[in-house]
Amino acid sequence: MVEMFAAENGLKGDPRLQAISNAIRVVPHFPKQGIMFQDITTLLLDHKAFKNTVDIFVDRYKDMNISVVAGVEARGFMFGPTIALAIGAKFVPLRKPKKLP
């Protein structure tokens, strides 16, 4: 999975990707048999891997004149504000209907 992402995004050979991958916990058969759930909350425990993740997004989008970053709950709330701050954009959290803002 890391290799495919790297190839598709011009990051082949980038050592940050393996460190990021290693920081993500895989939970087999969750929420049901056959699913390999990628728990990205463990990435937040590794400050270097988290920074590398944000840096990859920032490198990709910093020169695109993006004015607003929208983060979809709940994982988008973890990465969106940090990326928005780094590229000088506003952040808007997106929630499911009938949820508090």
Sequence-ordered SSE layout with sheet pairings:
Blueprint: H1 2-8, H2 15-23, E1 25-28, E2 36-39, H3 47-61, E3 68-72, H4 75-87, E4 90-94
Parallel strand pairs: 3-4
Antiparallel strand pairs: 1-2
Helix pairs in contact: 2-3, 3-4
Enzyme class: transferase
Subunit structure: Homodimer.
Keywords: Cytoplasm, Glycosyltransferase, Purine salvage, Transferase
Shape: globular
Main β sheet profile:
2 strands, antiparallel
By DSSP (H or I, 4+ residues per run), the number of helices equals: 4
Number of domains: 2
Low-confidence stretches: none
| Range of helix content | 40-55%
The computed structural class is alpha+beta
Q: Strand arrangement, largest sheet?
A: 1-2
- Radius of gyration, in Å, reads 15 Å
Mean pLDDT figure: 92
EC number: 2.4.2.7
Subunit structure: Homodimer.
Subcellular location: Cytoplasm
Enzyme class: transferase
Short description:
By secondary structure, this protein is of the alpha+beta class. It has helices at 2-8, 15-23, 47-61, 75-87, and strands at 25-28, 36-39, 68-72, 90-94. The chain has two domains: 1-61, no CATH class; 63-96, no CATH class.
What does this structure look like?
The protein is of the alpha+beta class and 101 residues long. The protein has 2 domains: 1-61, no CATH class; 63-96, no CATH class. It is 44% helix and 18% strand. The protein has 4 helices and 4 strands; from the N terminus they run ααββαβαβ. A two-stranded antiparallel ribbon has the order 1-2. Helix 3 packs across helix 4 (75-87). The longest helix is centred in the middle third of the chain and has 15 residues, at 47-61.
